[in-house]
Design a protein that fits this description.
The complex is a heterodimer. Chain A contains 14 helices and ten strands. By secondary structure, chain A is an alpha/beta fold. By secondary structure, chain B is mostly helical. The longest helix of chain B is centred in the N-terminal third of the chain and has 34 residues, at 75-108. Classes of the chains: A alpha/beta, B mainly alpha.
């Protein structure tokens, strides 16, 4: 028995040596620890990607120390000294904060992926069977429809929803005034503005509202967890792009990690958790919780992006979410007063 | 709160632990041991409370007075402060009555299940507030098995405050009530005093300081509540949005000065309320 174990171990060692000899990477047993700091949603996917990477010669000797939480909080924590080699945030402005603090190089988004590592879209989650027959954005502003959306003021991630709602009016030929008017009607129907995307999902699943403005990956995850909800992909919606970046003084392995995250094998793990891969040619079989496993991520007729429709995060942050004069901030404040 | 990490002024550890504070001028020369105790207490208190609070106030005024004023008079913020303070006051009044009644029942009555109830009182202390929020949402939300739905209304804020502040008055009053000398009550009764008179003239004066202490804690806790109500209240501006949500929004927008400014207003209001409660209770005790 003991002999057998030894033989197996020896064989494994030889096989390992041979393998590493093939790929030419050093076979030293020195382990490297990478610190990942990210927003809460992709934690499971990142864990799965790490497990896959550790099976390859590049990732074999890498250990991970991870920290996940609200995107903005995590970003501020890194600025205040939380050790990170690689960050994965919900919105680009959370990485920009690190650029401003001198922790991430300014060229972080110059690559082919423009700094984006995972993506999803804004969808309209409804009750099973869609009893209120919600099909598109126009159905949301009908009288009597109750909407739940995370609060764009306190949740950076919730800003994608507000952008989708505003942008779809413009994309269909509306003026900025009409888009703002649409937002007003939308927020007049909002019955709950929870602090984060997860809180909003919890609130909706506990019975609040008819519609939840949510991300596709979040509703797929909820379905994977056995929750009962349905969702509609509007004809025009927003592409959610989550940025990832390697810090300036990170271990060199972090760059290799990022390369793996962007590879088909890495993106496959994101897809399994409901995120849309950012590249073509990713194996999309066997994704649970989607409506049609043969076509897990149906094509969106008219997909809005930050770059195409909103210029840049910097510009849109100021225009829509500025503390005092942001369009969305003002609309939300007014909606509260009107309802009184 | 992250504003607390901004570098505050250096600790003024005026009391050197090794030197008795003989020059305090109060006329009570401290012994070596009590001087050491005072020094440790002051240092501890400074590190945990005074310096962080000073840092909040410094951060609040960091962007100038006009900015400070602008932040706290913002309509949405002012509405949130009114709602938070108003609800906390109301809840405190309810707690003063209900907390005293519960303490009375626990101390003076004997009934089956008393020990269980005694332990359950502390649950709002022990439960992480977000769990409390989940419980409240499932009990008093749209899917309420009791048929009571207060989700996304001001009643939700009131309910959440009530839940988390319940133990304060009970726990403050209970031990005092248990230690009360029953003989004085019996003497009063033998002299023909009614039960109400006994309560008002003999019991109430003894437990008033405890009620006041519980009330002050209850108010302060209510004002700062966040976790238990975020799920149930809906955070609707001008309607159910509380101050801590406003502070969180300011932080999310990298407006630390704004967050600190709102926090400072809350601090000042809490201080005023706590002092008022103390003055009131002193008056009552003297008159009693």
């Amino acid at each position: 028995m003991k002999l057998r174990t030894r033989v197996t171990a020896a064989l494994a060692l030889v096989a390992g040596l041979a393998l590493s000899a093939c790929t030419g990477s050093p076979s030293s047993g020195e382990t490297v620890t990478l610190h990942i700091v990210g927003f809460a949603v992709p934690e499971a996917a990142n864990k799965a990607i790490a497990a896959e990477w550790q099976k390859t010669p590049e990732g074999r000797n890498v250990r991970f120390e991870t920290s996940y939480g609200a995107s903005g909080d995590q970003s501020r924590a890194v600025v205040n000294g939380l050790k990170a080699d690689y960050v994965h945030f919900s919105v680009t402005s959370d990485v920009t904060r690190l650029v401003d603090a001198g922790l991430v190089d300014e060229s972080w988004d110059d690559g082919w992926n423009k700094g984006i590592v995972s993506s999803s879209i804004v969808v309209l989650a409804v009750r099973p069977g869609n009893p209120k027959n919600i099909q598109d954005w126009d159905d949301l502003i009908q009288p009597g429809i109750e909407i739940v959306t995370p609060n764009p003021a306190s949740s950076g991630a919730a800003r994608w929803n507000a952008l989708a709602a505003w942008g779809q009016v413009i994309a269909n030929g509306g003026t900025e005034e009409e888009a703002t008017e649409y937002l007003r009607k939308l927020f007049a129907n909002v019955v709950s503005l929870p602090g984060s995307g997860r809180d909003a999902t919890t609130s909706f699943l506990s019975g609040t509202g008819d519609v939840l403005l949510a991300y596709e990956n979040e509703v797929i995850l909820a379905t994977q967890n056995g929750e009962e909800l349905d969702w509609v992909i509007p004809e025009t919606t927003m592409l959610i792009e989550n940025p990832g970046a390697v810090l300036k003084d990170a271990h060199p392995k972090a760059t290799e990690w990022l390369t793996f995250v962007l590879s088909p094998a890495g993106q496959r793990q994101f897809a399994l958790k409901g995120f849309r891969p950012i590249i073509d040619g990713v194996d999309l079989s066997g994704i649970e919780g989607v409506k049609d496993p043969n076509n897990p991520f149906p094509e969106v007729k008219n997909l809005l992006t930050v770059e195409k429709d909103f210029e840049s995060w910097e510009a849109l942050s100021k225009k829509f979410f500025d503390d005092e004069n942001g369009i969305v901030v003002k609309v939300i404040a007014e909606s509260g007063k009107a309802a009184q | 709160m992250s504003v607390a990490t901004t570098a505050g002024p250096r600790p003024e550890t005026g009391a050197d632990p090794r030197r008795p504070a003989a020059d305090s001028g109060a006329g009570y020369p401290l012994t070596r041991a009590s001087g050491l105790g005072l020094g440790v207490a002051m240092l501890w208190f400074s590190l945990l409370v005074l310096i962080p609070l000073a840092a909040v106030i410094v951060a609040a005024t960091g962007a100038g007075w006009s900015r400070f004023w602008q932040t706290i008079t913002n309509e949405q913020t002012a509405a949130a402060i009114r709602l938070t303070v108003g609800t906390a006051l109301l809840v405190t009044v309810v707690n003063v009555v209900m907390g005293t009644v519960i303490a009375w029942v626990l101390v003076r009555d004997r009934f089956p299940g008393q020990r269980v109830l005694e332990m359950l009182i502390d649950i709002p202390f022990a439960l992480p507030t977000i769990v409390a929020g989940l419980v409240l949402l499932s009990l008093y939300g749209p899917k309420s098995p009791l048929g009571i739905n207060v989700a996304n209304t001001r009643a939700a804020v009131f309910l959440a405050f009530l839940f988390v502040t319940l133990p304060f008055v009970v726990r403050a009053v209970q031990p005092v009530l248990a230690e009360l000398d029953r003989e004085a009550e019996e003497a009063a009764a033998s002299l023909g005093a009614s039960r109400f008179t006994i309560f008002r003239r003999i019991i109430l004066p003894s437990i008033t300081p405890a009620i006041a202490a519980g009330a002050a804690l209850s108010f302060a806790r209510g004002v700062s509540e966040y976790g238990s109500l975020v799920l149930l209240s809906g955070n609707l501006p001008h309607k159910t949005e509380v101050t801590s949500v406003r502070i969180l929004s300011a932080i999310e927008n990298d407006n630390l000065e704004g967050a600190a400014a709102v926090a400072t207003v809350l601090l000042v209001i809490s201080l005023i309320v706590i002092v008022t409660v103390d003055v009131l209770q002193r008056r009552l005790v003297r008159r009693g």
